[in-house]
Design a protein that fits this description.
- The complex is a heterodimer of chains A (265) and B (312).
- Chain A contains 6 helices and 15 strands.
- Chain A has 265 residues and is an alpha/beta fold.
- Chain B is of the alpha/beta class.
- Chain B has one domain: TIM Barrel (Alpha-Beta Barrel).
- In chain B, helix 2 runs parallel beside helix 3 and helix 6 crosses helix 8.
- Chain B starts with 6 loop residues before the first strand and ends in a 17-residue tail after the last helix.
- Classes of the chains: A alpha/beta (265), B alpha/beta (312).
- At the A-B interface, strand 13 of A face strand 5, strand 6 and helix 7 of B.
Chain lengths: 265, 312
């Protein structure tokens, strides 16, 4: 699919809670071609910096609107948070490969595992999974959301609206399971048929590493969306590689979604 | 009247003097959707070695004030993979193709690469990369890490490549030296048609929370606007003492910064890191140069080269 560079109007750029923000931009062409798991490169700064673009995962699309979630974690996202509706952002996208439905997915159940901001692409993916599936009883998408605290749980409502079965874990025990979301998943797996599920995951690196370990142990099929510092985002600089059984692969180009079993992680 | 932007380096004619720097433009296909590649003066490939290289361990890049440190480590498919898979695509884009080549410790590899590429009509020129800070390209007998840090070794490699190819030769030099003029002269004496100045400046950055280096190899090559004054100074120093054309590079981000290099003495320029931020910047610079020349009533870019007016 063609990659485009456009100046896109900001429709909304607002705080959701704490350091989490939602950005909505308008770009019909990029929106139309976006798939869950893909990302955009945003030029957040001016000549004063930061120098490089920032990658943001696509959270949802609706006609010409593209939604993204981000956390203020450094100078780039701090500057992005200052940008106002009505201003324009230079964006490149859609980039990378998203989540895919494996051929055997008709008989399988989808399990979504999200940590923190990791919910962003998984809402988009859940929409597609729901839209693509014929309604059959007992075939609900299971979603596991992990957050630091109750206040930082993102998108619980969105998943529920889609008819997903949502389970929560918090690091401080303020809501749901007290502990890591991978712990909650591992407990739930006891009663699931591991051969029939596919786990789609996005979140912080320790969570993904733990998931890769679990999936390897239980022979579960899994796709994980990785995050890396990127210079170009289009596969040119070879800066964002991850090690796989087929050698180094670019997170921005062959990824950001990889099959867990291929990662040397 | 449209100003004349044509330049000649070695035996090669270029329709304009704006190139894209090796390692910052992949094999051009990555950029095909984002700019009109035909409009580039030349495309310089990612550096190719004899054998495929998987490159250095990640993390490989980090952003610094107005700069980017990288330690990719010359990841490339090797000369066979390049000729088979990359070159056929590259040559379709139109501009002259300059292939960047490097050795992995045995300078004799430059000769092997030059011989292979010499036979290919799709290849216009070779860029001898003896200045990548992320590999040790010098032989065991050399005290320096890089060939381009030693004038005799520079001379030997350029001379050896010159013997086996009639293609235009560009030697890319490192700024990580005490006196770049001495190295530039050695390259010229050995028969290099031009010089590419500069490769990245060695640098590092540290994560104070983990006390780990921000890139796995600890030291990498700094690029971007942060190094522009260093690059410009080196172009000027070399221009005053060395006769062969200079392709200036290092932090060029727009028309203004490109013009600085021509005034300092560069005959052509390359855009590097800025390709990552603004993929179409090189094409904008081509038209920006044209406008500047028109406005200043200069009918040929050649007349701008080395016109620095200084009191010393």
């Amino acid at each position: 699919m063609r990659i485009r560079q456009n100046r896109a109007e900001i429709l909304t750029n607002a705080k959701i809670c704490g350091k989490y923000h939602k950005l909505i931009i308008k770009d019909a062409k990029i929106s139309r071609n976006s798939r869950p798991g893909q990302f955009l490169m945003l030029k957040v700064g001016d000549s004063q910096g930061p120098l490089l673009r920032r990658p943001l995962s696509i959270h949802r699309v609706d006609k010409e609107k593209i939604e993204m979630l981000y956390e203020r974690i450094g100078p780039g996202t701090e500057i992005l948070a200052q940008r106002k509706a009505g201003e324009f952002l230079d964006v490149i996208g859609p980039l990378g490969n998203g989540f895919t439905l494996p051929p055997e997915s008709r008989e399988s159940e989808a399990v979504l595992l999200a940590g923190g901001m990791g919910v962003a692409p998984l809402v988009f993916w859940a929409q597609r999974l729901v839209a693509g599936k014929r309604k059959s009883a007992g075939d609900r998408i299971q979603v596991f959301i992990g957050a630091r605290t109750k206040e930082q749980i993102l998108c619980e409502k969105e998943f529920k609206k889609l008819g997903c079965d949502v389970k929560i874990a918090t690091d401080d025990g303020s809501a749901g399971f007290f502990g890591r979301v991978t712990g909650l998943l591992e407990a739930a797996l006891q009663t699931m048929d591991c051969q029939r599920i596919i786990v789609y995951a996005c979140g912080p690196q320790p969570m993904l590493r733990e998931l890769v370990r679990i999936c390897r142990k239980k022979l579960i099929s899994s796709q994980v969306s990785l995050e890396e510092h990127m210079a170009c985002g289009i596969g040119a600089c070879l800066g964002c590689v991850v090690n796989t059984i087929d050698g180094y692969k670019r997170v921005c180009k062959e990824g950001p979604v990889f099959e867990a079993k291929k990662l040397i992680y | 009247m449209t100003p004349d932007l044509k330049i000649k380096i070695g035996r090669t004619h270029f329709k304009n003097p704006v190139m894209v720097a090796s390692g910052t433009f992949g094999y051009a296909e990555e950029f095909a959707d984002l700019l009109d590649l035909k409009k580039l003066g030349a495309i310089v490939s990612k550096t190719i070695t004899v054998k495929p290289r998987q490159g250095n361990i990640p993390p490989r890049t980090c952003e610094t004030p107005a700069g980017l440190i990288n330690s990719i480590g010359l990841e490339n498919p090797g000369i066979d993979g390049f000729i088979e898979n990359k070159l056929p695509v590259l040559k379709k884009f139109g501009p002259p193709i300059i292939v960047s080549i490097a050795s992995e410790g045995d300078p004799g590899e430059f000769v092997i690469l030059a011989k292979r590429l010499d036979k290919l009509s799709a290849v216009t020129a070779l860029e001898i990369n003896i200045s990548c800070p992320n590999v040790k390209d010098a032989g065991k007998n050399l005290k320096t890490k890089l060939i381009s840090q030693d004038p005799k070794a520079t001379y030997a490699v350029v001379k050896a490549v010159r013997r086996v190819t009639g293609k235009t030769l560009i030697t890319k030099l490192s700024p990580n030296v005490t006196d770049i003029v001495e190295i530039a002269q050695a390259a010229q004496d050995a028969g290099s048609d031009a010089l590419a100045l500069i490769n990245t400046v060695q640098g590092m950055a540290i994560d104070i929370k983990t006390r780990q280096p921000k890139i796995a190899m600890v030291v990498g090559g700094l690029s971007g606007p942060a190094i522009r004054p260093i690059a410009l100074r080196m172009v000027w120093e070399v221009y005053r003492k060395v006769g062969i054309p200079i392709i200036g590079m290092g932090g060029i981000a727009d028309t203004e910064s490109a013009l600085e290099f021509f005034i300092a003495g560069a005959s052509a320029i390359s855009v590097g890191t800025q390709n990552f931020i603004d993929p179409g910047v090189s094409v904008k610079i081509v038209s920006g140069i044209s406008k500047y020349l028109q406005k200043n009533k200069i009918n040929s870019l050649k007349k701008l080269v080395g016109t620095l007016e200084c009191k010393i």
